[in-house]
Amino acid sequence: MGDIHSIRGNACFEKRIHKPDLRALGLYEKFVELGWEAVVDFCGNESGEVYIGSIMEWLSTLTKDDGRTPPRTITLTGKVNGKPTTMSLALLNQVTKFDSKVDSFYTFIKENYYLNDKTKIVGENVMYSELFLLGKGVEMKRDNQKPLERVLLSLLVTIVAPWLRDLMSIRKWELLVLFAIMTRQIHLSFQQLVMLHIWQSRNKRKKKLIPHARLISAFLRKQGVVPISEKPFAKPHATFLIADMCNSDRITHMKTQLWHKVKFGDGARLKVLQWGKQRPSQGEMDDLDSSDEELLRRKRETGIEVGEGSSRQHEEPRQSNYS
Length: 323
Prior knowledge:
The protein is α+β, with helices and mostly antiparallel strands. Helix content is about 35%, strand content about 10%.
């Protein structure tokens, strides 16, 4: 998988999440409803230390056992310091309870359905009408998504479905995770997703991506297999902030006294009230326009249909040109 410097560069290190921003976007409650509150809180070792050597040894020797009733019983086993170390849904709970709901709450999906054939789980028309803007088609590009879903995707590729390259495109399985979070119509198990991502990266031809690096490191330490002699890699925690996500020439962010305002390169806009701020009365709203998320919320509350000029349009189901 390359020298130690390239290995570190290909590792996805979970970020700290600035909870007030997540709450302002209305996303924290969605994570909680899936039982994923620990996913938001998890950041591995508080000091930022990650045991890259043990991670690489474990991944390079990894095997999968389907068990009696897959996918619930699938386990991944690798060796660290000569000791076989098995990851299962139950053993991941020893790190933290990533899935806080009862086991029967979650839908455990087949690997092929998740990675290649999501239509076995959700109809394409349903999924695309929820996630994409009307009139932009459903080509798998971030610029075709609704504004809030674009922000959520930036979060997903850091803590839920890790990815490092071509961040303007969307991978098939990311749509399913986005749909699950935004609608809660599917109750995906985060712990199962972790194991799916690890096994998928292990089977990639070039084997470059290391997903969930802090989680794997914490898991191996919990299992007591990291050698005392191994020197950890000090990787300070980055933080997921709305402002940092918008730090590019394609996305701009402005923070007023009350609002987060995000403008995307294609002209789509998102406006949300800062967490902890008092929502102004209708007459006091500042520079409100038809693309503001706050106005759309008010229209939904009063039953007014959202029109073409909004950032989250009312859309009819349509056929996908993606396969």
